[in-house]
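Researcher: Please translate sequence to structure tokens.
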Amino acid sequence: MLLKDISRDVRVELRYDIDPDSGILARSARIENHTGKPLFVQQSAAATWNLPAGSDYVLHSLSGRWAGEWHWITGPVLASQTVLESRRGSTGQQNNPWFALAPAGTGEDTGPVWFGALAWSGSWRITVEPDLKRRIRVTGATTRLISPTGSPPASHSNTPVFFAGYTPGGLGEASRLLHRFELTHVLPQAPHPRARPVLYNSWEATEFNVNEAGQVKLAEMAARIGVERFVMDDGWFGARDNDHAGLGDWVVNPRNFPTACSRSLRRVHALGMDSACGSSREMVNPTSNLYRQLRTGC
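Model: Translation complete:
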């Protein structure tokens, strides 16, 4: 569906797609600036889903923290606007861009459920609000300002995709429908994604005592029990000898890894495993070189 501003050559293409197997509907918008001049868009939503009128809806959402992810939060739909939001700038366990709405009394196996997820890994917002007749509106959007300024003759900006579905089969069936949809349409290699590899993480064995010889020994032990991906966790970078140092200095510690991890990685790959290195890019220690450089400007 193509819309156009009445006075300026600004167009909005509304994109719809539906999965016939799950009934999940996808909606997004593409904003096009054909004016030849800069255009600033203050707010843009991916979609608004409208539910039947009702006074007993329960809102379900997910929140959590490190080591306590995905707590199920429930509450009534208030007369004012309810906002589910993350401003962290990246995907995290604090808030999940998912919602479900169901009448009170809906269980795992019976009862109507409307559900959805915003396909966005940055900052986002989902608002839930009733109108005067208690019809519920659910709107999904990013929290960043979208500004398709570009250069003539045209520029554009896309919203994320907002997925939504319905089932009369309870909250359990809503979960299964969305998971099946993700497996067959969203994950890499869909509709037949590769099984997740068996993963070993070195943290529990070594904590900050990470060095080349120790990691090679762990990799050999992991391969013998069928591990498919070996993750070298905290301690390989900077002066990361404890929890108060090193974060921000994402360079290999030459004292612990004289071959810059190459020997460890070669051995991991020779054993038939994938490799990965753990990091916490969202944090910086005040004792790191990066922090000192940012403070001094050099």
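Researcher: Any highlights?
Model: Residues 148-153 have pLDDT under 50 and may be disordered.
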